Amino acid sequence: MSIQITGLSSINGPLVVLDHVTGASYDEVVELILENGTTRTGRIVQIEGDRVVVQVFEGTNGLSLTNTRTRLTGKPMELALSPEMLGRIFSGAGKPIDGLGEVYGADYRDINGKPLNPVAREYPRNYIRTGISSIDGLMTLIRGQKLPIFSGSGMSHNKLAAQLVCQSQLSDDSDEKFAIVFAAMGVNNDVADYFKRVFEESGVLENVVMFLNLANDPIIERILAPRCALTAAEYLAYEHGMNILVIMTDMTSYAEALREFSSSKGEIPGRKGYPGYLYSDLASMYERAGIVKGGTGSVTQIPILTMPNDDITHPVPDLTGYITEGQIVLDRALDQRGIYPPVSVLPSLSRLMKDGIGEGFTRADHGDVANQLFASYARVQDARALGSVIGEEELSASDKAYLVFGREFEQHFISQDSGENRTIQDTLELGWDLLSLLPRSELSRMDAALVEKNYNPDRAKRFRSDR
């Protein structure tokens, strides 16, 4: 039985306060009926005795303190779910905005999700190929993993997000079902149009569920968007056995909406003004990635966030790094040099990579090639630092070789066209070509038999001809 209350005690921004309410539940959905008969939706975000605070999704403009009627529905916010969601575009609150009508739900689920039993989790193994060498080769994405991308304002993370949606797939010989859930939060209209256009032109939209929250939409939608996206992902993964990749951008916009919402409730702010529960709030979404034992589906996450002032110690990237299994860091210096994607290799890593590559997954030599490329690129930074002090002419022959390797590695391995989709074989062969620029004695992170089989200075001739 629903409860209906007439009148509001107070209005504060997107929040309304009701007094003398009994039987209410936290996160319960309410309907607010205005004087003109129109209805708005909200949810209970705070309960203090018989006082209830409701956050109104569509804003509080036009609400009357005396004549607004509020109906408690007795249930949390739910999302209508169906396999027909694929190819559809929704608002941040899960309402269709593509003009194709409502989704007739085969199921309805609480957008806050249900926690996975840790005992029921299966350890992630198989990889997801993105077609981007720097990711596939050096920080491989594993099914069931959460691997964030740390970017900066004005950098090419939107372009990278679109490329990931267009190119990502399971291993080349896999016949398992794969789809993508994409959530954009706080984006401008031109960015939203860019995403829709790229997905349509590439032909992948029919395999994508999109949730779009624009910058001028209510902040509550920004808070709901990732939860709606993850609810759709869990339904497709665990009920229909699909492997789902969830890409969410920009989590910093989400955190700022959460900060604004927390401030409007009068909560005591924590670091940088963010609420003290930011860590647990982010964890409640990131931990919805995973694989359930006995099932065929999986949920993998790539949250994208911008670091204010490129500060990796900012609360949002800092807390995200504690929760997730690695990170992909974009570098502004590479971006300014026209290198795309501007992946900063040395601070980036995938903690689950070692268990999802190698023989039976990618290629037997994948781990060795990745280790050697990391080690060699680290030496490049040392050689560049030394060269800036004493001059490049005074460097040893090996240091000069590392400078050449570093330049070609950035131009050919890290950098690639936004429409270039490389296989894992292409990536590893390119890695061997680049390592062949170095003296054989420098390949100390590899087995001698592997070097003997694959090392050949002639492989590097094409880089010398490029210069």
From TrEMBL:
Stated name of the protein: V-type ATP synthase beta chain
ATP synthase A/B type C-terminal domain segment(s): 355-455
Organism: Merdimmobilis hominis
CDD domains named in the record: ATP-synt_V_A-type_beta_C, ATP-synt_V_A-type_beta_N, V_A-ATPase_B
InterPro entries named among the record's database cross-references: ATP-synt_VA_C, ATPase_F1/V1/A1_a/bsu_N, ATPase_F1/V1/A1_a/bsu_nucl-bd, P-loop_NTPase, V-ATPase_su_B/beta
Keywords of this entry: ATP synthesis, Hydrogen ion transport, Ion transport, Transport
UniProt domain ATPase F1/V1/A1 complex alpha/beta subunit N-terminal: residue ranges: 9-65
Membrane-spanning ranges: none
Superkingdom per UniProt: Bacteria
Lineage of source species: Bacteria, Bacillati, Bacillota, Clostridia, Eubacteriales
Gene of this entry: atpB
Pfam families xref list: ATP-synt_ab, ATP-synt_ab_N, ATP-synt_VA_C
Residues in ATPase F1/V1/A1 complex alpha/beta subunit nucleotide-binding domain copies: 131-350
